[in-house]
Amino acid sequence: MADPITLPSYQLAATTLNDDISAPTVKKHEFSDRVMIRSIVSRPDGGAGLAGQRVRVGGWVKTGREQGKGSFAFLEVNDGSCPANLQVIVDATVADLGQLVQTGTSVSVEGLLKNPPEGTKQKIELRVEKVVDVGTVDPAKYPIPKTKLTLEFLRDRIHFRPRTNTISAVARIRNALAYATHTFFQEHGFLYIHTPIITTSDCEGAGEMFQVTTLINEAERVEKELIKNPPPSEADIEAAKLVVKEKGEAVSKLKSDKAGKEAITVAVAELTKAKENLVKVEERSKLKPGIPQKDGKIDYGQDFFSRQAFLTVSGQLQVETYACAVSNVYTFGPTFRAEHSHTSRHLAEFWMVEPEIAFADLKDDMNCAEAYVKFMCHWLLDKCFDDMEFMAKNYDKTCIDRLRMVASTPFERISYTEAVELLQDAVKEGKKFENAVEWGIDLASEHERYLTEVKFQKPVIVYNYPKGIKAFYMRVNDDLKTVAAMDVLVPKVGELIGGSQREERYDIIKERILEMGLPLEPYEWYLDLRRFGTVKHCGFGLGFERMILFATGIDNIRDVIPFPRYPGRADL
């Protein structure tokens, strides 16, 4: 029998020591010449049943140490497919052990899976027969040593932090929640709509938006151009006009003299060229350094989109156009807020999940939000339990219990007015809040967390908020003081979801836009949805990073997004 290591790669994963085809086999990755470590160590038996198989694995060395006076080495290898490592044993006769044992080294190795000696925590280990590839590391310069690192430290080494146990676990949890999001809405008949990143509408009416413009770049280009090639003078313009006049007179003379066709054609071409040159000269004479102005204000008519444009704060308004045509839709993408906040709960770039449901009211909205949150909790418990165990061990010992509680408990539903009364009762009983409690305030995080963590000890949906603290598109209730808005509050983070029944009545929403001090012109298309075939509809937005904070128990939102953007930082 030929040496199995020399067999074609597609046979490697299924080859066993004794060619027993009835033995369990581990599948190779479909698009990579290796077996994923997860498919070995995450089996119910920890991989023990795979003993005797020859496989190729690849990953990065978490820890490595030489043993037996340098005769062999133990490597803990992880490829990111799961939190667990695969123990790899390499003899000095196979490879240079000094290169392999450094933390951060990438390795691709082939060998035999074996059961380790009894009494060890590993259920399976890999005895290496061939080292295929090595990506070496200089331990003196490697920025991610194997000592315990703070999450703050890792934010300054953003390109290496996915190699850590915490950030890779967060990445898998984030991936699972994204998968769960699409699964939930697809299974419930929603269409996934890609809403624009660049918008001319301010959904929240807050004005804290990043502006998209080419005026600054264009002004810098013009300034450099004018220094290098000064604009034409009045004399230059007059000279160009004179040439046009002369060329025009020449054409007229040739025609009156009944000259030949060829001569006239040549003269007309020269006239055309002279006219084109005059246009260029006149255009260049208008170039001025600085941002273009009109009536003392910036002239956005000369900007790329011929109007002011921004990075979106929400895809809601745009996705409503599809809800008012194909009924049930959702968008899931990045949103942006130019808010100078350095708190642990704010990012300048963050992701939002925003469904919209036609022919539905506030109660339907609350039902959908509750079902969606519960679905995600179930999904993590079913699909990501090993990563959740890591989080429970290292960050929040209650995170798994919290997921189970939310997944299985009916959400409490109370009106905003009832919520304020409960908070006021708590104050009377001695509870101290930093923010005063009175009807009309926007509930602070401390109020929300008191309701969900202390008063009810489960998720709470607060609905019917004061009109004055909510956005213009929320439906005004019959009392004319409140709107059909709702927030889902959960332990650990407070508000997780904000939603509402949308105002479908043309006259009322027009009045609300004006009340908020917003211009009508950018929202004419939004008003059209109410002018023509208006429909009752509702929706909500879930802050995706807040869901990850809730699930993992991690404290800072900058640690649950791959590339955090916040004031002063936009690395990579």
UniProtKB/TrEMBL annotation:
Keywords: Aminoacyl-tRNA synthetase, ATP-binding, Ligase, Nucleotide-binding, Protein biosynthesis. Its EC number is 6.1.1.22. It holds the Pfam family tRNA-synt_2. CDD domains: AsxRS_core, EcAsnRS_like_N. Signal peptide: none annotated. It comes from the Eukaryota. PROSITE patterns: AA_TRNA_LIGASE_II (PS50862), WHEP_TRS_2 (PS51185). Residues 329-562 form the Aminoacyl-transfer RNA synthetases class-II family profile domain. InterPro entries: Aa-tRNA-synt_II (IPR004364), aa-tRNA-synth_II (IPR006195), aa-tRNA-synth_II/BPL/LPL (IPR045864), Asn-tRNA-ligase (IPR004522), Asp/Asn-tRNA-synth_IIb (IPR002312), NA-bd_OB-fold (IPR012340), NA-bd_OB_tRNA (IPR004365), WHEP-TRS_dom (IPR000738). Residues 236-292 form the WHEP-TRS domain. Belongs to the class-II aminoacyl-tRNA synthetase family. This is asparagine--tRNA ligase.
